User: Fold these one by one.
Assistant:
Number 1:
Amino acid sequence: GCEEHWHQDYPYNEISYSSRNNDDFYRLILAIDDNTRENGGLIFIPGSNKLGYLEHDDILSIQHKHKYRLNSDLLDNIYGKYGVQNLDVDSGGAILFDNLVIHGSSSNQSPKSRTNLVFQLLNKNKVKQYKINSEKNLLRKKFEKNVISEILKNI
């Protein structure tokens, strides 16, 4: 698998989700394969959810997908205060964390696969009506398509 830049999950769910409260959104990751440092397992900044919502840079990934990532200057200060934790998870194990925990992963450069099932657990009272945000979602898809078209023209 490819790397995931340092991020919080909240920005990815802003289209359909209306709360920045840690207790309203969780992500559950169930490891199908072993997740280790060698095959690009998850990396966390423990206690970072106490910082609240942080601004993210809007980027285009190496796979030409719209992504969010935390600013590197901001991260330098956070590393020093909270440290970084590689989280190895055995096949069949799980990780549960809230939407404000800073996390990411390195790319898998090993011959071992790293497959996971990812579940989102939301407070049903905080979920927006999809219809309200469908225009924003369509604009994002249109933006991605236009950016990719421009990149391909220049190759």
Number 2:
Amino acid sequence: VQTAGLFVIAIFVSDFAQAEKLERFPSIKSKLHRAPIFRHKSYPVAWTAAQKSNRPMLLYVSMPSCPHCVKMINSTYKNREVGTLISESFETVYVDRYAQADLVAKLRIKIYPTTILVSANNRVLDVIEGYVEPQTFRLRLKTELATQHFSTQKR
């Protein structure tokens, strides 16, 4: 997790060029927004939104031919409780392994799907690899949100 955290700041700067490329190619852009829960189409856009909302980011790294990735979207992300928690608590972005290959390489993703939680101050909070059942995933997200909430409170 710490190794991935070192790359997050560099990713933000270099991924602006990738975001501009996606804007020029609508067919790629439309494929990235696979489910309504994924609000943003690129890391820089999600990061900017996280700065404004002071909410953490949720990056879902996937690839189209991955059966576990499809299952994660269809059963876990589309679960009502998970969806509500995510939409109320995170700035979300779908990261396609092929369309955003530079970002995936910098994050050193080897297992698909991978969900990465990043704080608004660009610190990796958690890396969740592989398919996760909805209730287990929801509890893991709630734990990270609680941890982040207490670590940002001032006494």
